[in-house]
Amino acid sequence: MKLITVAVLLAVFCYGVESFRLQKRDAEPTAPPSAWGNVVTDTLWDYWGKGTALASGWIEDVKSWKVDEKVRNLYTESATAIETYTGILKDQIYHSWNQQ
Questions:
Q1: Burial, 47: exposed, middle or buried (Cβ in 10 Å; 0-12, 13-18, 19+)?
Q2: b/e map 14-36, b = 16+ CB within 10 Å
Q3: pLDDT band at residue 5, thresholds of 50, 70 and 90?
Q4: Max CA distance (Å), the chain
Q5: What start and end residues bound the annotated signal peptide (predicted)?
Q6: Would you tell me how many other CB atoms lie within 10 Å of the CB of residue 12?
Q7: Exposed (0-12), middle (13-18) or buried (19+): which is 9, by Cβ within 10 Å?
Q8: How buried is residue 5: exposed, middle or buried, by Cβ count under 10 Å (0-12/13-18/19+)?
Q9: If we measure between CA atoms, which residue out of 60, 54, 63 comes closest to residue 12?
Q10: Is this structure's pTM higher than 0.85?
């Protein structure tokens, strides 16, 4: 789950950085250099808010798929099948060694 979250956040931030580059290239600076710090900070906080909101939405979408429940069910069914076949194999080995 942490890996998915990190990947989603990384993708969101990479997309935000690329769009920031495009905005920076297209726009002419209109504010004096002393005000640029506030503009950059506000822009970064805006991207951070959008990124976290988007990532939270994606996380909620993934939770709604109930992936963890499906994985748990798959594990339980697989463990049951393995236990059954292991028991059969154990009986076969026992009876082949102890023939009467």
A1: middle
A2: eebeeeeeeeeeeeeeeeeeeee
A3: confident
A4: 98
A5: 1-19
A6: 19
A7: middle
A8: middle
A9: 54
A10: no
